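Journal club prep, notes for RB
We'll compare a predicted complex against what the paper describes. Inputs for the zinc ion case:
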Amino acid sequence: MRAAILREQGVPVKIEQVDLDGPEQGEVRVQLVGAGACHSDYHRISGHVDFGTVPYILGHEGSGIVKEVGPGVSTVAVGDHVIFSLTAQCGRCRNCHDGKANLCEFWVLGKATLPTGRRPFSQDGVELYADLATFAEETVVPETYLVKIREDIPLEKACLIGCGVMTGVGAVLNRAKVEAGSTVVIIGCGGVGMNVVQGAVLANAGKIIAVDKVQFKLDMAESVGATHFIDASKEDVVKRVMDLTNGGADYAFEVIGFPQTVRQAFDCIRPGGTCVMVGVPFKGQDIAVPGMKLFWDRTVMGTFYGAGRPKTDFPWMLDLYQDGRLKLDELATKVRPIEEFNEAFDDMNAGTAIRTVFTF
Ligand code: APR
Ligand code: ZN
């Protein structure tokens, strides 16, 4: 069975043969159908985030079909179509009870083992690190990471819900709770930012101002509903936003991961406005804002996974897709076999793809 293994940060990833053991108690074996290439994967590949656990099987955005269930599994069955959630949504912890499944206390993603400490992937008898491991033909995860979905939606499209759509749309609707008519700025219109634009459309925002350095991204933002456009490579972003909003936006979302662009987002909001950091900050970096501006009722807000409650949110998002009100086809700009792994990240860095979906 093939999987994309990161052996060393900064070194091209290879597709290798691996073995997979399980499912055991409470675990499920899923055959992957689609898996999206997210910038968070690239943060690991490039070394932008601390990452000592190699050799590691990459991938966290994915969809597939349940192949086998372990003892005690009750929420999914063989043949079910599922999307992977980034968080466990155990349903029993304080945060799950409080409607904050994105902060599930059972969540162990990033530890590179199953919650039991087990490592189901190996190669020649040597254990490999992995979390959801969606860049593999098959994977084994606890059932709490899976959301069963309707079966009339192509899984190569549905996979995008698992990270990019949940993070972006959720940041607007679940976390910031943008009110109708608000002016919204989105700095960084990639795979996640495009979904912040979509969230703003769903929230009935007024002006939706897309900011990127790449014209193709701005064109794509227009196709999903942005109303105004700023090319950050040519224009003074804050000045243009001030002009367009008559003194500052109600909301500005940073969807890249740089302290400078978080600061830029903060500088785009009016007194009483909210700056939402969606991008993952690089390791060890602080976010600084001028105290006097903050004093005037401005808010700086973090958001992890769009305050997502996957079992609640994935189904309505897919319903909206089927109704034509949430776009997925436009986001999946390329479909590639998993063998073309490194090319997909080259596209990401060249700015020529919104999301590449790997197939197996
Ligand atoms: N100003 C404006 N846009 C910029 C700038 C800048 N200074 N620098 C980069 N961009 C744009 C890129 O052109 C690209 O369109 O930001 C976008 C980033 O998009 P992707 O590379 O597709 O990344 P994405 O998968 O959307 O993730 C964005 O969110 O979930 C996190 O880890 C993820 O931190 C990452 C962020
Ligand atoms: Zn992601």
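Talking point for the session: The chain has eleven helices and 20 strands.
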